[in-house]
Design a protein that fits this description.
CATH topology: Rossmann fold
Radius of gyration: 17 Å
Number of helices: 9
Shape: globular
CATH architecture: 3-Layer(aba) Sandwich
Number of strands: 5
CATH class: Alpha Beta
Order of helices and strands: EHEHHHHEEHHHEH
Length: 199
């Protein structure tokens, strides 16, 4: 089984890349969705998050308010570090279990989408790392829709992530996503043919 790690900073286009890979036949594991499952209401991780960050991060239905939690951690490096210490081992374990399950099912190709694949040191989960990059202007255009308040939030999150020029050192493939979808599809198909021809 081939496991492709798809990573990149916020707004780079990781999900679009995974959507293309899904159409080509890959099974997708979204680390962000695994995280949602892990801090479901009343889980041990949910309790740990509330213990550290307080009840203000909980909605009326007892779900974690991700927006409020994001506002806290992306404005305070120590809080972000704590969130990562709580969440990263749990998400890693969940991804590992999902990969093992797909291996048993004899799935041929899996794509693991994880923004913090490199920062969290999860590269041992994958066989190859594809880094999706885009310009800051393109990223803001895609995510903010020219909303100034949203732009400031996005930039705060970007600042908390490892710079692209650092991530490049760890990538096996670099995917530039400054063009249109057809250009991105052509690049992904090219990479797909390259990896599937040797598996």
């Amino acid at each position: 089984m081939l496991i492709i790690g798809i990573t990149g900073n916020i707004g780079s286009g990781k999900s679009t890349v995974c959507h293309i890979l899904s159409r080509l036949g890959a099974v997708i594991i979204d680390a962000d969705k695994l995280g949602h499952d892990i801090y479901r209401p009343y889980s041990s991780t949910w309790q740990e998050l509330i213990k550290f960050f307080g009840r203000t991060i909980v909605k009326e239905n007892d779900e974690i308010d991700r927006q409020k939690l994001g506002e806290i951690v992306f404005s305070c490096p120590a809080s972000l570090a704590m969130l990562n210490r709580i969440m990263h081992p749990q998400i890693y374990k969940a991804a590992q279990q999902r990969i093992s399950s797909y291996r048993i099912q004899q799935v041929q190709t899996v794509a693991l989408e994880a923004t913090l694949l490199i920062e969290a040191g999860w590269q041992d989960l994958v066989d190859t790392t594809w880094l999706v990059v885009t310009s800051r202007d393109k990223m803001l255009q895609r995510l903010s829709n020219n909303n100034l308040n949203l732009k400031s939030t996005i930039l705060a999150r970007l600042k908390a992530q490892m710079p692209v020029n650092e991530k490049i050192k760890y990538a096996d493939e670099l995917i530039n996503n400054d063009g249109d979808v057809s250009q991105l599809e052509a690049k992904i198909q090219e990479l797909w043919q390259g990896v599937t021809s040797v598996t």
